[in-house]
Amino acid sequence: MASTKTYTTLIAAATSNTAGSTTTGTAANTSTAYGGAITVKLTNGATGPTVAAQAHVLVSGDNTNFKTLCTFYGDTVNSSVNEFAVDINPGYKYVNVTVDSNTGQTVTCEAFFHELTTV
Q1: From 3.20.20.140, 2.60.120.660, 3.40.50.300, 3.90.870.10, which CATH number describes the 4-118 domain?
Q2: What pTM was computed for the model?
Q3: Taking Cα atoms as reference points, which of 50, 61, 46 lies closest to residue 96?
Q4: What does 62-106 look like in DSSP terms, one character per residue?
Q5: Measured distance CA(26)–CA(40) in Å, rounded
Q6: Are 116 and 5 in contact (CB under 8 A)?
Q7: What is the pLDDT of residue 19?
């Protein structure tokens, strides 16, 4: 039998995280999933930020108290694209991503959860 995968948007493509702001995704309920992966993309504008953006992959058991699973760091290079992926094991009930820390310039971000729903 073929596996089934579901693609869920946490942070929509081309979302702007303005300098000094935080973009918080929409949490995905993974309680019926067999795990999956989160992909994150951070894109600098023609002028890179003074301080690079950070993307925090978060997990929770109750959709309220999130803990940081890992953090990815962008860079300050003009027009740079930084892409990351992390595997999510089936033990987590909710997953989400926040992007923050960039200063000086806006950074475009996106995050998706690739959920394994059937094996």
Answers
A1: 2.60.120.660
A2: 0.95
A3: 61
A4: SSSS-EEEEEEE----TT-EEEEEEEE-TT-SEEEEEEE--BSS-
A5: 14
A6: yes
A7: 97
- And the tokens for 3? 């596996």
Burial class (CB in 10 A: 0-12, 13-18, 19+), 40: buried
Q: Using pLDDT thresholds of 50, 70 and 90, give the confidence band for residue 98.
A: very high
The Cα–Cα gap between 41 and 115 comes to: 18
Residue 48 CB partners (closer than 8 Å, separation 6+): 75, 76, 77, 78, 79, 80, 105
Looking at the predicted structure, is the pLDDT value of residue 1 above 70? no
Kindly state the tokens that stand for 18: 């303005």
